[in-house]
Amino acid sequence: MHILFITSTRLGDAILSTGLLDTLLRRYPEADFTIACGPVAAGLFAHMPRRVRTIEMVKRPRNMHWVDLWRQCRGRKWDLCVDLRSSIVSYFLRVGERHVMQGGRRRGPRITHIGNLLELDPAPLPVTWTSAAERTEAARMLPDDGTRWIALGPTANWDGKIWPPERFVAAFKALQADDPRLRPVILYGPGEAERARALPVIECLPDALDTGGSLSVTQVAALLARCTLFIGNDSGLMHLAAASQIPTLGLFGRSKAMEYAPAGPWGRVAMAPGPVGNAPMEGLNVKQVVQTAQMLMRDRAHAKR
Q1: Can you give the pTM of this predicted structure?
Q2: Residues of the chain with CATH 3.40.50.2000
Q3: Are 28 and 58 in contact (CB under 8 A)?
Q4: Angle between helices 192-204 and 165-178 (to 10 degrees)
Q5: Which of 110, 114, 270, 303 is the most exposed place for a label (fewest CB within 10 A)?
């Protein structure tokens, strides 16, 4: 059985789709999978079971990237195609069963829209796939020596979604004052712009582990799985943390938590006051973030007992 899965170009949306993929893996244990996604999201699927190919869709003028995808897929009969990009590609392929998500923005959680495509209620939660080597390296970087690692995600894909860096520093120091075992891990993506956004936090937390922005998506997932907590802006990193099933606190102001809150068993949000989806991040105070983080860690600790 051959399954074609067309998912997002953006990392966060692609992560939200992994729960649907995990469902298909269990539903069709003999199937192989071809993933079509954007280059930024491609690494997410590197260790996915029974993935035979990832097709990276590089955006081209006049939607020619869809023609490229059709050319790469037309030579096979597909038993099932799941298309989260609302394209018409599958209608020009030999497909036994197709599920195509309708386009346009809709109210409610994005993960619910994804689950509805296969009539799944509740929607399946995101997952991560990492290698044994990545987990071993993560254990070396974040050893079990009594330290409680707190992952900080101080960047985002645009500046309006970023909580001021000095508040990330203040929030961590307040948490560390309450528990001296805490140590920060600074996570951010590749490129100079990402580095520049993270640098003010790195410089003010000299005991932080700076991951350097050079790790792959799955390497970061392996690190996150060893952390006590993630605090970060609405971003792909936030969704990756939630998919790693660690306590995840997403910070929202200029984006809508009702659509993109961290989807995981321990996902929580702290929201800036003001118009929903258009509230300045500067309105989100340190005390609110610290209190929410402390409550989340306490709840998680009680659940483990």
Answers
A1: 0.97
A2: 2-116, 140-304
A3: no
A4: 40
A5: 303
Give the contacts of 132 (CB within 8 A, at least 6 positions apart): none
Could you tell me the two tokens for 30? Answer: 């003999």
Fold category of 2-116 in CATH: Rossmann fold (3.40.50)
Q: CA 38, 210, 125, 218 torsion: positive or negative? A: positive
Highest CATH level, class, for 140-304: alpha beta
44-95 pLDDT tens trace: 999 999 999 999 999 999 999 999 999 999 999 999 999 999 999 999 999 9
How many Å apart are CA 101 and CA 117, to the nearest integer? Answer: 6
**Cα–Cα distance between 305 and 303 in angstroms, integer?**
6
Omega cis (within 30) before 280: no
Interval 111-130: pLDDT, tens: 999 999 999 999 999 999 99
